[in-house]
Design brief:
By secondary structure, the chain is mainly α. It has 16 helices and no strands.
Protein backbone atom coordinates (compact mmCIF):
# COMPACT_ATOMS: atom_id res chain seq x y z
CA UNK A 1 0.00 0.00 0.00
CA UNK A 2 2.83 2.40 0.82
CA UNK A 3 4.34 1.72 -2.61
CA UNK A 4 1.02 2.54 -4.29
CA UNK A 5 0.80 5.82 -2.37
CA UNK A 6 4.22 6.86 -3.71
CA UNK A 7 4.05 5.50 -7.25
CA UNK A 8 0.51 6.33 -8.42
CA UNK A 9 0.96 10.15 -8.38
CA UNK A 10 4.31 9.77 -10.17
CA UNK A 11 2.73 7.51 -12.81
CA UNK A 12 -0.21 9.87 -13.38
CA UNK A 13 2.20 12.79 -13.89
CA UNK A 14 4.62 10.74 -15.99
CA UNK A 15 2.33 9.02 -18.50
CA UNK A 16 -0.77 11.22 -18.27
CA UNK A 17 -4.31 10.61 -17.07
CA UNK A 18 -5.51 8.83 -20.25
CA UNK A 19 -2.56 6.40 -20.36
CA UNK A 20 -3.01 5.73 -16.66
CA UNK A 21 -6.60 4.70 -17.42
CA UNK A 22 -5.27 2.05 -19.81
CA UNK A 23 -2.67 1.00 -17.23
CA UNK A 24 -5.42 0.48 -14.65
CA UNK A 25 -7.11 -1.92 -17.07
CA UNK A 26 -3.77 -3.67 -17.56
CA UNK A 27 -3.51 -4.13 -13.79
CA UNK A 28 -6.90 -5.86 -13.89
CA UNK A 29 -5.71 -8.37 -16.49
CA UNK A 30 -2.32 -8.94 -14.85
CA UNK A 31 -3.76 -9.34 -11.39
CA UNK A 32 -7.14 -10.98 -11.84
CA UNK A 33 -7.65 -12.66 -15.21
CA UNK A 34 -7.20 -16.13 -13.73
CA UNK A 35 -10.94 -16.45 -14.44
CA UNK A 36 -9.86 -18.43 -17.51
CA UNK A 37 -8.79 -21.32 -15.24
CA UNK A 38 -12.45 -22.50 -14.87
CA UNK A 39 -11.97 -22.77 -11.10
CA UNK A 40 -9.33 -25.49 -11.45
CA UNK A 41 -6.78 -23.56 -9.39
CA UNK A 42 -9.04 -23.49 -6.31
CA UNK A 43 -10.25 -27.03 -6.98
CA UNK A 44 -6.62 -28.16 -6.98
CA UNK A 45 -6.11 -26.58 -3.54
CA UNK A 46 -9.04 -28.51 -2.10
CA UNK A 47 -8.14 -31.83 -3.72
CA UNK A 48 -4.49 -31.64 -2.66
CA UNK A 49 -5.57 -30.74 0.89
CA UNK A 50 -7.91 -33.75 0.86
CA UNK A 51 -5.05 -36.02 -0.28
CA UNK A 52 -2.78 -34.69 2.46
CA UNK A 53 -5.50 -35.22 5.06
CA UNK A 54 -5.97 -38.83 3.89
CA UNK A 55 -2.17 -39.47 3.84
CA UNK A 56 -2.23 -40.09 0.08
CA UNK A 57 0.76 -37.94 -0.88
CA UNK A 58 1.76 -40.39 -3.62
CA UNK A 59 -1.34 -39.44 -5.64
CA UNK A 60 -0.61 -35.69 -5.59
CA UNK A 61 1.95 -35.46 -8.49
CA UNK A 62 -0.49 -36.82 -11.15
CA UNK A 63 -3.19 -34.50 -9.81
CA UNK A 64 -0.87 -31.48 -9.82
CA UNK A 65 0.64 -32.03 -13.28
CA UNK A 66 -2.72 -32.80 -14.90
CA UNK A 67 -4.17 -29.64 -13.38
CA UNK A 68 -1.21 -27.49 -14.43
CA UNK A 69 -1.41 -28.69 -18.03
CA UNK A 70 -5.14 -27.98 -18.12
CA UNK A 71 -4.55 -24.53 -16.65
CA UNK A 72 -1.88 -23.69 -19.19
CA UNK A 73 -4.04 -24.81 -22.13
CA UNK A 74 -7.02 -22.87 -20.82
CA UNK A 75 -4.75 -19.84 -20.47
CA UNK A 76 -3.66 -20.21 -24.09
CA UNK A 77 -7.32 -20.30 -25.12
CA UNK A 78 -8.01 -17.21 -23.01
CA UNK A 79 -5.05 -15.42 -24.58
CA UNK A 80 -6.33 -16.19 -28.07
CA UNK A 81 -9.78 -14.87 -27.18
CA UNK A 82 -8.29 -11.70 -25.67
CA UNK A 83 -6.13 -11.14 -28.76
CA UNK A 84 -9.14 -11.56 -31.02
CA UNK A 85 -11.29 -9.01 -29.18
CA UNK A 86 -8.50 -6.48 -28.53
CA UNK A 87 -8.99 -4.50 -31.79
CA UNK A 88 -12.71 -4.23 -31.07
CA UNK A 89 -12.04 -3.08 -27.49
CA UNK A 90 -9.51 -0.43 -28.53
CA UNK A 91 -11.17 0.92 -31.68
CA UNK A 92 -14.86 0.55 -30.84
CA UNK A 93 -15.77 -0.13 -27.20
CA UNK A 94 -13.33 2.02 -25.22
CA UNK A 95 -12.98 5.71 -25.97
CA UNK A 96 -9.24 5.57 -26.52
CA UNK A 97 -7.79 8.82 -27.94
CA UNK A 98 -6.68 8.37 -31.55
CA UNK A 99 -3.00 9.06 -30.75
CA UNK A 100 -3.00 6.29 -28.09
CA UNK A 101 -4.81 3.57 -30.03
CA UNK A 102 -1.74 1.91 -31.55
CA UNK A 103 0.22 1.57 -28.31
CA UNK A 104 -2.92 0.53 -26.43
CA UNK A 105 -3.55 -2.27 -28.94
CA UNK A 106 0.04 -3.54 -28.70
CA UNK A 107 -0.27 -3.39 -24.92
CA UNK A 108 -3.43 -5.51 -25.04
CA UNK A 109 -1.61 -8.08 -27.18
CA UNK A 110 1.12 -8.30 -24.53
CA UNK A 111 -1.54 -8.82 -21.89
CA UNK A 112 -3.01 -11.65 -23.95
CA UNK A 113 0.39 -13.35 -23.96
CA UNK A 114 0.48 -13.16 -20.15
CA UNK A 115 -2.77 -15.06 -19.53
CA UNK A 116 -1.24 -18.61 -19.77
CA UNK A 117 1.39 -17.44 -17.28
CA UNK A 118 -1.31 -16.25 -14.89
CA UNK A 119 -3.37 -19.45 -15.05
CA UNK A 120 -0.34 -21.71 -14.56
CA UNK A 121 0.76 -19.59 -11.59
CA UNK A 122 -2.67 -19.99 -9.98
CA UNK A 123 -2.23 -23.77 -10.08
CA UNK A 124 1.21 -23.65 -8.47
CA UNK A 125 -0.12 -21.30 -5.83
CA UNK A 126 -2.96 -23.75 -5.15
CA UNK A 127 -0.49 -26.55 -4.42
CA UNK A 128 1.39 -24.35 -1.95
CA UNK A 129 -1.82 -23.18 -0.26
CA UNK A 130 -2.96 -26.78 0.19
CA UNK A 131 0.27 -27.44 2.07
CA UNK A 132 -0.30 -24.22 4.07
CA UNK A 133 3.03 -22.78 2.92
CA UNK A 134 1.83 -19.25 3.51
CA UNK A 135 5.19 -17.89 4.54
CA UNK A 136 6.77 -18.63 1.16
CA UNK A 137 3.61 -17.45 -0.62
CA UNK A 138 3.82 -14.11 1.16
CA UNK A 139 7.53 -13.87 0.38
CA UNK A 140 6.59 -14.15 -3.30
CA UNK A 141 3.36 -12.15 -3.24
CA UNK A 142 4.69 -9.05 -1.48
CA UNK A 143 7.60 -8.36 -3.90
CA UNK A 144 5.31 -9.06 -6.86
CA UNK A 145 2.70 -6.61 -5.55
CA UNK A 146 5.39 -3.98 -5.06
CA UNK A 147 6.76 -4.58 -8.55
CA UNK A 148 3.31 -4.15 -10.12
CA UNK A 149 3.39 -0.49 -9.05
CA UNK A 150 7.10 0.27 -8.94
CA UNK A 151 8.02 -1.58 -12.16
CA UNK A 152 6.32 0.87 -14.56
CA UNK A 153 8.33 3.71 -13.01
CA UNK A 154 11.50 2.11 -14.41
CA UNK A 155 10.32 3.00 -17.92
CA UNK A 156 9.62 6.68 -17.33
CA UNK A 157 13.21 7.93 -17.84
CA UNK A 158 13.26 6.26 -21.28
CA UNK A 159 9.69 6.22 -22.58
CA UNK A 160 6.16 7.27 -21.71
CA UNK A 161 4.61 4.70 -24.06
CA UNK A 162 2.29 2.03 -22.70
CA UNK A 163 4.10 -0.81 -24.50
CA UNK A 164 7.28 -0.94 -22.34
CA UNK A 165 5.22 -0.24 -19.22
CA UNK A 166 2.97 -3.26 -19.84
CA UNK A 167 5.95 -5.35 -21.01
CA UNK A 168 7.58 -4.80 -17.61
CA UNK A 169 4.41 -5.99 -15.86
CA UNK A 170 4.35 -9.16 -17.99
CA UNK A 171 8.06 -9.79 -17.28
CA UNK A 172 7.29 -9.53 -13.56
CA UNK A 173 4.63 -12.23 -13.87
CA UNK A 174 7.07 -14.53 -15.66
CA UNK A 175 9.46 -14.13 -12.72
CA UNK A 176 6.55 -14.84 -10.38
CA UNK A 177 5.74 -18.06 -12.24
CA UNK A 178 9.35 -19.22 -11.89
CA UNK A 179 9.35 -18.37 -8.17
CA UNK A 180 6.15 -20.35 -7.55
CA UNK A 181 7.54 -23.33 -9.50
CA UNK A 182 10.77 -23.38 -7.50
CA UNK A 183 8.81 -23.12 -4.25
CA UNK A 184 6.57 -26.04 -5.26
CA UNK A 185 9.55 -28.23 -6.16
CA UNK A 186 11.17 -27.41 -2.83
CA UNK A 187 8.01 -28.04 -0.79
CA UNK A 188 7.11 -31.24 -2.66
CA UNK A 189 10.20 -32.84 -4.27
CA UNK A 190 8.05 -35.64 -5.72
CA UNK A 191 6.80 -33.16 -8.34
CA UNK A 192 10.30 -33.00 -9.86
CA UNK A 193 10.67 -36.75 -10.11
CA UNK A 194 7.17 -37.86 -11.06
CA UNK A 195 5.74 -36.15 -14.14
CA UNK A 196 2.51 -38.09 -14.65
CA UNK A 197 -0.72 -37.12 -16.42
CA UNK A 198 -4.04 -38.89 -15.78
CA UNK A 199 -6.98 -38.35 -18.08
CA UNK A 200 -9.35 -39.70 -15.42
CA UNK A 201 -8.67 -36.64 -13.24
CA UNK A 202 -9.99 -34.15 -15.79
CA UNK A 203 -13.69 -34.72 -15.05
CA UNK A 204 -13.39 -34.43 -11.23
CA UNK A 205 -11.36 -31.22 -11.60
CA UNK A 206 -13.88 -29.66 -13.95
CA UNK A 207 -16.83 -30.80 -11.82
CA UNK A 208 -15.39 -29.38 -8.60
CA UNK A 209 -14.30 -26.24 -10.39
CA UNK A 210 -17.80 -25.61 -11.73
CA UNK A 211 -19.11 -23.42 -8.92
CA UNK A 212 -15.67 -21.91 -8.48
CA UNK A 213 -15.83 -20.90 -12.15
CA UNK A 214 -19.04 -18.99 -11.45
CA UNK A 215 -17.23 -17.27 -8.58
CA UNK A 216 -14.27 -16.43 -10.83
CA UNK A 217 -16.61 -14.89 -13.37
CA UNK A 218 -18.87 -13.05 -10.92
CA UNK A 219 -16.04 -11.65 -8.79
CA UNK A 220 -14.16 -9.82 -11.58
CA UNK A 221 -17.49 -8.76 -13.09
CA UNK A 222 -18.47 -7.12 -9.81
CA UNK A 223 -15.13 -5.40 -9.37
CA UNK A 224 -14.20 -4.39 -12.90
CA UNK A 225 -17.11 -4.25 -15.34
CA UNK A 226 -17.94 -0.73 -14.20
CA UNK A 227 -14.63 0.69 -15.40
CA UNK A 228 -15.20 -0.81 -18.85
CA UNK A 229 -18.63 0.85 -18.84
CA UNK A 230 -17.04 4.17 -17.86
CA UNK A 231 -14.37 3.78 -20.54
CA UNK A 232 -17.03 3.09 -23.15
CA UNK A 233 -19.47 5.86 -22.14
CA UNK A 234 -17.15 8.61 -20.88
CA UNK A 235 -13.37 8.55 -21.36
CA UNK A 236 -10.16 6.91 -20.18
CA UNK A 237 -9.48 9.98 -18.05
CA UNK A 238 -12.73 9.27 -16.21
CA UNK A 239 -11.50 5.69 -15.70
CA UNK A 240 -8.41 7.10 -13.99
CA UNK A 241 -10.46 9.30 -11.66
CA UNK A 242 -12.63 6.30 -10.83
CA UNK A 243 -9.92 3.64 -10.37
CA UNK A 244 -7.18 5.53 -8.51
CA UNK A 245 -9.19 5.42 -5.24
CA UNK A 246 -10.02 1.77 -5.93
CA UNK A 247 -6.34 0.93 -6.36
CA UNK A 248 -5.73 2.42 -2.93
CA UNK A 249 -8.62 0.62 -1.27
CA UNK A 250 -7.75 -2.66 -3.00
CA UNK A 251 -4.45 -2.68 -1.09
CA UNK A 252 -6.53 -2.94 2.10
CA UNK A 253 -8.17 -6.14 0.83
CA UNK A 254 -4.89 -7.90 1.65
CA UNK A 255 -6.08 -8.15 5.26
CA UNK A 256 -9.28 -10.21 4.71
CA UNK A 257 -7.71 -11.97 1.71
CA UNK A 258 -4.79 -13.17 3.82
CA UNK A 259 -7.13 -14.51 6.50
CA UNK A 260 -9.49 -16.22 4.03
CA UNK A 261 -6.51 -17.69 2.15
CA UNK A 262 -5.27 -19.30 5.36
CA UNK A 263 -8.78 -20.52 6.23
CA UNK A 264 -9.54 -22.26 2.90
CA UNK A 265 -7.22 -25.29 3.32
CA UNK A 266 -8.13 -25.40 7.03
CA UNK A 267 -11.82 -25.52 6.04
CA UNK A 268 -11.06 -28.28 3.53
CA UNK A 269 -9.47 -30.43 6.25
CA UNK A 270 -12.00 -29.75 9.00
CA UNK A 271 -15.04 -30.17 6.71
CA UNK A 272 -14.18 -33.84 6.29
CA UNK A 273 -13.13 -34.47 9.90
CA UNK A 274 -14.84 -32.03 12.29
CA UNK A 275 -17.64 -29.78 11.04
CA UNK A 276 -17.94 -28.09 14.45
CA UNK A 277 -14.39 -26.85 14.02
CA UNK A 278 -15.34 -25.48 10.58
CA UNK A 279 -18.09 -23.40 12.19
CA UNK A 280 -15.68 -22.17 14.88
CA UNK A 281 -13.08 -21.19 12.26
CA UNK A 282 -15.68 -19.31 10.23
CA UNK A 283 -16.96 -17.33 13.21
CA UNK A 284 -13.47 -16.39 14.31
CA UNK A 285 -12.48 -15.42 10.78
CA UNK A 286 -15.44 -13.08 10.32
CA UNK A 287 -14.94 -11.51 13.76
CA UNK A 288 -11.22 -10.90 13.40
CA UNK A 289 -11.56 -9.46 9.90
CA UNK A 290 -14.18 -6.95 11.07
CA UNK A 291 -12.16 -5.95 14.14
CA UNK A 292 -9.09 -5.44 11.96
CA UNK A 293 -10.66 -3.26 9.26
CA UNK A 294 -13.38 -1.18 10.97
CA UNK A 295 -11.16 1.30 12.89
CA UNK A 296 -8.97 1.83 9.83
CA UNK A 297 -11.92 2.46 7.50
CA UNK A 298 -13.52 4.87 9.99
CA UNK A 299 -10.41 7.03 10.15
CA UNK A 300 -9.82 7.04 6.37
CA UNK A 301 -13.45 7.88 5.50
CA UNK A 302 -13.40 10.79 7.93
CA UNK A 303 -10.20 12.22 6.45
CA UNK A 304 -10.78 11.26 2.78
CA UNK A 305 -10.81 14.81 1.28
CA UNK A 306 -7.62 15.84 3.08
CA UNK A 307 -5.87 12.58 2.19
CA UNK A 308 -6.66 12.96 -1.52
CA UNK A 309 -5.61 16.61 -1.68
CA UNK A 310 -2.26 15.86 -0.08
CA UNK A 311 -1.75 12.78 -2.23
CA UNK A 312 -2.90 13.78 -5.72
CA UNK A 313 -3.58 17.51 -5.60
CA UNK A 314 -6.77 19.54 -5.36
CA UNK A 315 -7.90 19.12 -9.00
CA UNK A 316 -7.60 15.33 -9.00
CA UNK A 317 -9.09 15.05 -5.49
CA UNK A 318 -12.20 16.98 -6.54
CA UNK A 319 -12.99 14.29 -9.12
CA UNK A 320 -12.25 11.30 -6.89
CA UNK A 321 -13.38 12.05 -3.34
CA UNK A 322 -16.88 10.57 -3.73
CA UNK A 323 -15.53 7.43 -5.37
CA UNK A 324 -12.97 7.07 -2.60
CA UNK A 325 -15.61 7.22 0.13
CA UNK A 326 -17.84 4.82 -1.78
CA UNK A 327 -15.05 2.27 -2.25
CA UNK A 328 -14.25 2.40 1.47
CA UNK A 329 -17.87 1.79 2.43
CA UNK A 330 -18.04 -1.15 0.04
CA UNK A 331 -14.81 -2.51 1.45
CA UNK A 332 -16.22 -2.46 4.98
CA UNK A 333 -19.36 -4.31 3.86
CA UNK A 334 -17.56 -6.99 1.90
CA UNK A 335 -14.41 -7.59 3.97
CA UNK A 336 -16.09 -9.75 6.61
CA UNK A 337 -17.82 -11.80 3.91
CA UNK A 338 -14.46 -12.83 2.44
CA UNK A 339 -14.49 -15.82 4.80
CA UNK A 340 -17.86 -17.17 3.60
CA UNK A 341 -16.95 -18.19 0.06
CA UNK A 342 -13.86 -20.31 0.94
CA UNK A 343 -15.96 -22.02 3.63
CA UNK A 344 -18.71 -22.87 1.12
CA UNK A 345 -16.15 -24.10 -1.42
CA UNK A 346 -14.36 -26.30 1.09
CA UNK A 347 -17.58 -27.84 2.42
CA UNK A 348 -19.24 -28.21 -1.01
CA UNK A 349 -22.24 -26.26 0.31
CA UNK A 350 -23.94 -25.35 -2.97
CA UNK A 351 -26.77 -23.51 -1.20
CA UNK A 352 -24.35 -21.15 0.53
CA UNK A 353 -22.39 -20.68 -2.70
CA UNK A 354 -25.51 -19.84 -4.67
CA UNK A 355 -26.54 -17.29 -2.01
CA UNK A 356 -23.11 -15.67 -2.22
CA UNK A 357 -23.40 -15.45 -6.01
CA UNK A 358 -26.95 -14.05 -5.84
CA UNK A 359 -25.88 -11.32 -3.40
CA UNK A 360 -22.95 -10.56 -5.72
CA UNK A 361 -25.33 -10.22 -8.68
CA UNK A 362 -27.56 -7.85 -6.71
CA UNK A 363 -24.55 -5.74 -5.75
CA UNK A 364 -23.19 -5.36 -9.28
CA UNK A 365 -26.66 -4.39 -10.55
CA UNK A 366 -26.89 -1.70 -7.88
CA UNK A 367 -23.41 -0.33 -8.58
CA UNK A 368 -23.89 -0.12 -12.35
CA UNK A 369 -27.25 1.59 -11.82
CA UNK A 370 -25.48 4.25 -9.72
CA UNK A 371 -22.80 5.10 -12.30
Amino acid sequence: MAVAVVTIPALVRGIGVARFGVLSIAWIVIGYFTLFDLGIGRALTKLVADKLGANEEHSIPPLAWTSLLMLFLLGVLGGLVTSAVSPWLVHRLLKVPLELQAETLYGFYLLALSIPILTATSGLRGVLEAQQRFRILNLIRIPMSIFSFAGPLLCLPFSHSLVPVIAILVAGRIIGLAAHALACFHAMPALRHSFVLQRSLIAPLLRLGGWMTVSNLVGPAILYSDRFVIGALLSLSAVSYYTVPFDMVSRLILIPAAISGVLFPAFALSAAQDRDRTELLLRRGVKYVFLAVFPMVLVIVTMAPEILRLWLGAAFAENTVRCFAGWLQEYLLTASRKCLLPCSRASDDLTLQSRCFWSSYQFISWRLACL
